[in-house]
Amino acid sequence: MTPLQQVPEYAAPPQLRDWWISPDAFTTLQFYEPTSLTGRSTGWIGISHETGKIYIFSFTN
Protein backbone atom coordinates (compact mmCIF):
# COMPACT_ATOMS: atom_id res chain seq x y z
CA MET A 1 0.00 0.00 0.00
CA THR A 2 1.07 3.57 -0.65
CA PRO A 3 1.41 5.85 2.40
CA LEU A 4 -0.56 9.10 2.28
CA GLN A 5 1.54 12.23 1.87
CA GLN A 6 -0.67 14.21 4.29
CA VAL A 7 -2.52 13.19 7.43
CA PRO A 8 -6.26 13.53 6.75
CA GLU A 9 -8.49 15.68 8.93
CA TYR A 10 -10.59 13.91 11.53
CA ALA A 11 -14.26 13.62 10.57
CA ALA A 12 -17.13 12.44 12.72
CA PRO A 13 -20.68 11.51 11.76
CA PRO A 14 -23.52 13.83 12.90
CA GLN A 15 -24.43 11.24 15.53
CA LEU A 16 -21.47 9.45 17.11
CA ARG A 17 -21.46 5.65 17.06
CA ASP A 18 -19.70 3.20 19.39
CA TRP A 19 -17.56 1.88 16.55
CA TRP A 20 -16.37 5.30 15.28
CA ILE A 21 -12.73 6.03 16.08
CA SER A 22 -12.06 8.69 18.72
CA PRO A 23 -10.07 11.83 17.88
CA ASP A 24 -7.22 10.68 20.16
CA ALA A 25 -6.99 7.22 18.57
CA PHE A 26 -7.17 8.82 15.11
CA THR A 27 -3.87 10.61 15.74
CA THR A 28 -2.09 7.26 16.23
CA LEU A 29 -3.10 5.76 12.86
CA GLN A 30 -0.77 5.23 9.93
CA PHE A 31 -2.58 6.31 6.75
CA TYR A 32 -2.50 4.82 3.26
CA GLU A 33 -4.14 5.53 -0.09
CA PRO A 34 -7.36 3.51 -0.54
CA THR A 35 -7.01 2.66 -4.25
CA SER A 36 -5.39 -0.76 -3.83
CA LEU A 37 -8.19 -2.06 -1.57
CA THR A 38 -11.28 -0.09 -2.58
CA GLY A 39 -10.59 0.95 -6.16
CA ARG A 40 -11.44 4.52 -5.14
CA SER A 41 -9.07 7.47 -5.08
CA THR A 42 -10.99 9.34 -2.37
CA GLY A 43 -10.63 8.63 1.32
CA TRP A 44 -7.99 6.73 3.26
CA ILE A 45 -7.07 3.51 5.02
CA GLY A 46 -5.84 3.89 8.59
CA ILE A 47 -4.06 1.14 10.50
CA SER A 48 -3.64 1.08 14.26
CA HIS A 49 -0.52 -0.82 15.17
CA GLU A 50 -1.58 -0.65 18.84
CA THR A 51 -4.89 -2.48 18.39
CA GLY A 52 -4.51 -4.14 15.00
CA LYS A 53 -7.68 -2.45 13.75
CA ILE A 54 -8.01 -1.26 10.17
CA TYR A 55 -10.24 1.72 9.37
CA ILE A 56 -11.48 2.49 5.87
CA PHE A 57 -12.95 5.89 5.00
CA SER A 58 -14.26 6.47 1.48
CA PHE A 59 -16.67 8.81 -0.24
CA THR A 60 -17.85 9.88 -3.68
CA ASN A 61 -17.65 13.35 -5.17
Strand residue percentage: 15-25%
Describe the sheet with the most strands: 3 strands, antiparallel
Determine the fraction of residues in helical runs and give it as a percent range: 10-25%
Number of helices: 2
| Total beta strands | 3
Q: Overall pLDDT, averaged?
A: 92
Low-confidence stretches: none
Instruction: Decide which structural class fits the backbone.
Output: alpha+beta
Encode the helix/strand succession as letters.
HEHEE
Distance between the termini: 23 Å
- Shape by Cα distribution: globular
Strand order of the largest sheet: 1-2-3
Computed Rg: 11 Å
Summarize the structure.
About 15% of the residues lie in helices and about 20% in strands. It has helices at about 25, 35-40, and strands at about 30, 45, 55. The radius of gyration is 11 Å and the shape is globular.
